[in-house]
Amino acid sequence: MLSLLVSATVTLVNGATSVVPAPPPPTPAPSTGASLPSVGSVARDYSPAGWESLWNLVGPVQSPPITTTVDPVLPDVLPSPPPALYPSWFAPQPADIFPNLTLPSGFLFGVSTAAYQVEGAVKEDGKGPTSWDWASRQPGVMVDGSTADITDLQYYLYKLDVARMVSLGINAHSFSISWARIYPFGAADSPVNQAGLDHYSNLIDYHLEMGIKPVATLFHWDTPLALVAYYGGFLGPQIVDDFVNYAKTVFAAYKGRVTTWYTFNEPRVFCAELGIYPFNTSLPIGVNSTQAPFICSYYVVKAHVAAVKAFREMGMPGEIAYKNDDFVGPPWRANSTDDIEAVERHAAFQIGVFSDPVYTTGDWPPIMKETLPPSFLPRFTPEEIAENKGTADFYAIDDYRDQWLAAPLDGLAACVNNTSHPLWPQCNQLMLYDSNAGWSAGPNPDPDSASWLQSTPQNFRYSLQQLQARWPTNKLYISEYGFDEAYEVDRTELYLITEDVTRTNYYMTYLGEALLSIHNDGIPLMGAFAWSIVDNAEWNYGFNAKFGIQYLNHTTLTRTPKRSAYALSQFFAAHLQKNDTVLP
Ligand SMILES: *[C@@H]1O[C@H](CO)[C@@H](O)[C@H](O)[C@H]1NC(C)=O
Ligand SMILES: *[C@@H]1O[C@H](CO)[C@@H](O)[C@H](O)[C@H]1NC(C)=O
Ligand SMILES: *[C@@H]1O[C@H](CO)[C@@H](O)[C@H](O)[C@H]1NC(C)=O
Ligand SMILES: *[C@@H]1O[C@H](CO)[C@@H](O)[C@H](O)[C@H]1NC(C)=O
Ligand SMILES: *[C@@H]1O[C@H](CO)[C@@H](O)[C@H](O)[C@H]1NC(C)=O
Ligand SMILES: *[C@@H]1O[C@H](CO)[C@@H](O)[C@H](O)[C@H]1NC(C)=O
Ligand SMILES: *[C@@H]1O[C@H](CO)[C@@H](O)[C@H](O)[C@H]1NC(C)=O
Ligand SMILES: *[C@@H]1O[C@H](CO)[C@@H](O)[C@H](O)[C@H]1NC(C)=O
Fold first, then answer.
1. Is 502 a domain residue?
2. Which of 39, 300, 308, 362 could form a disulfide with 385 if both were Cys (CB 3.0 to 4.6 A apart)?
């Protein structure tokens, strides 16, 4: 099965670690994978032949250039830091941003990753295929024609990434566990894959040994493909028991070693995607693409609640929640009643959908129930409402940007009861420029990839205050934040790539505002996780979207720190309590 099995040599070249002795073959053109057979028509066959036939639904995959875990040379040595970006009269050095404001004791200087985006080695050690292994091969899905078959190969190179975290002073890593590595067929009655359990066990131990807090997410969008084929994945009621079974296996395996857990990453975005291509081509009978996001939301809440119940019954030490996404921004036109109402719709549909059930009322936001009949949004029973409440120990938000919110430009009334309106049912939109003179909300996004992402530090404190007022918490994590540098993909030389000015300014301005949130607004912020430690496979944008604080050379798999990595390192070294700083 594996053609190349070479012993990896590790050398330090200008601080950058070269990890593969021979370049892998170039990424093949994306295969135009076949669509899935209709939901329910694939028989359950938990044998090796059944595993192979599931992989046949995906098509051929690229084998990794190495298949053993690489040990880093310790201590990891960084290249010398960059010179100051600007004169100090124009912008302070990272250490000099509000030098008298410190971060609270125990603050997490984190980075975040996700299994599909960084691991590679997709068919190694018994892993089953996932919905994204399949989706990335569907015609027209990937903007750059890439797959995540190899990506950062963190599956074998995680020790290098952890060593690099140590040398940057990072003290926490939020990663995700791939369900299909633990249960290749996903289902509760299917066999557990010991190699998958062992992998994450070793990975967790290595983090602990190196002084990096491991933070684990159970589900970061990579549904076992088997479950999509058997019953439509998160659109079928069986998903709840299958997810809880997987969660219990993982809890039992890593109990006490991982103490901060997430059930779901950005469930709102995950569920929204089930209604669009290519996921809407494999819907179960009786669910159409308009209903799909909300039916998914119902099962995600139930799966989350049941997993948290198991977590507590098992006496798991530590804390658990999910990673919400998005923001509550100010109204675009300050005095427009339509825009003020649009903010409420945004808060309900984008955040309240998963936060009201868990943090406040136990139920869906009223605006959602007024808009969506039960055929779209299944209603919770009084028993379910009681069970939902209080099933999170802290609040986590992936807060990348905080723009303005506006009503549909033809007015709210034209949308709220009008299923043919393009913005129905949310009936709100975010605005990238102001309502007075049309100035941008902030430094602009990469037009070739994440076109939604502007750098908007001015609204960051407002947004955190909104979250705290609506879903009060004793502990908040920014579970992801980061920036996709415009045109970075077009830069070909290291000195151009590593000078990531907009990303550096993004992180420094957000962190300065975070200090003010903590000290002036009383926000209980206890951690911020930069997305991401290294460039990776950004869903349908593939490698066009650059989010890394390190550059990934796809030929050598070398990671090279960009300016933003040093800025983060210097900021936190100056602002963390001394006993929270991990140093080699
Ligand atoms: C910061 O702290 C230093 C030393 O404690 C003090 O001299 C200085 O006035 C403080 N600056 C501000 C802005 O509070
Ligand atoms: C799936 O969604 C796409 C838009 O993402 C749409 O063009 C297509 O018609 C939909 N297909 C089905 C089967 O609903
Ligand atoms: C989806 O089903 C609902 C409920 O039957 C129906 O009201 C709606 O028009 C359907 N939407 C589409 C796109 O077929
Ligand atoms: C909104 O209304 C208030 C009070 O009428 C006024 O002072 C303010 O200038 C208005 N703001 C905008 C942006 O129109
Ligand atoms: C939408 O329909 C509801 C229920 O019929 C009604 O109360 C509300 O006024 C309507 N809203 C608009 C803007 O037409
Ligand atoms: C419903 O939305 C469609 C599409 O935007 C629009 O043409 C129509 O006028 C709206 N209907 C009402 C009653 O506002
Ligand atoms: C990536 O590595 C290859 C092979 O060593 C090298 O030729 C290329 O210049 C590197 N790319 C960058 C941007 O450094
Ligand atoms: C770090 O030091 C502070 C203040 O001295 C103390 O309150 C806190 O418990 C210490 N934290 C750890 C993790 O040791």
1. yes
2. 362
Q: How far apart are CA 355 and CA 5, in angstroms?
A: 47
- Check pocket membership of 421 for ligand 6, CB cut-off 6 A: yes
pLDDT tens digits for 288-314? 999 999 999 999 999 999 999 999 999
Alpha-carbon distances of 313 from 248, 258, 344, 384, 387, rounded to whole Å: 10, 17, 36, 18, 14
Q: Work out the average pLDDT over 55-81.
A: 96
Q: Is 387 a catalytic residue?
A: no
Cα three-residue angle 408-411-414, rounded to 5 degrees: 95
Q: Is the CB of 288 under 6 A from ligand 3?
A: yes
Assess whether 384 carries a catalytic annotation: no
6 or 501, which is more confident: 501
What is the reported pLDDT for 451?
84
Q: Which residues contact 458 (CB under 8 A, 6 or more apart)?
A: 442
Report yes or no: 329 and 431 within 8 Å, Cβ to Cβ.
Answer: no
Indicate which residue's Cα is closest to atom 2 of ligand 5.
417
Taking the centre of ligand 4 as the mean of its atom positions, its distance from the CA of residue 429, in whole angstroms, is 22
Residues whose beta carbon lies within 6 Å of some atom of ligand 4: 334-335
414 lines ligand 6 (CB under 6 A): yes
Mean pLDDT, range 353-381, rounded to an integer? 98
- The catalytic residue among 119, 124, 273, 480 is 480
Its domain, for residue 223, covers 2-17+96-336+480-575
Relative to beta strand 16-18, strand 108-112 is: unpaired
Mean pLDDT of the chain: 94
Q: Is 563 within the bounds of a domain?
A: yes
Contact 208, 231 (CB under 8 A): no
Selected catalytic residue, list 119, 124, 266, 341: 266
Q: Which atom of ligand 4 is nearest to the CA of 436?
A: 13
390: its two tokens: 């209080």
φ/ψ of residue 578, rounded to 5: -60, -35
In a domain, 537, yes or no: yes
Distances (CA, A) of 275 to 15, 41, 280, 324, 340: 45, 21, 5, 19, 28
- Provide the number of structural domains found in the chain: 1
Q: What share of the chain is helix, strand, coil (3-state, %, to 5)?
A: 35, 10, 50
- Assess whether the C-beta atom of 416 lies below 6 angstroms from ligand 5: yes
Residue 158 pLDDT exceeds 80: yes
> The domain spanning residue 550 has which CATH number?
3.20.20.80
With bands split at pLDDT 50, 70 and 90, how would you rate the model's confidence at 162? very high
The DSSP result for 456-479, as a single string, is -GGGHHHHHHHHHHHS--S-EEEE
- Please report the pLDDT score of residue 580 as a whole number: 83
Q: What is the largest CA-CA distance in the chain?
A: 68
Within a domain: residue 495? yes
pLDDT in tens, 236-256: 999 999 999 999 999 999 999
Strand partners, 552: 559
pLDDT of residue 5: 27
Residue 304: name the closest of 296, 293, 316 by CA.
Answer: 296
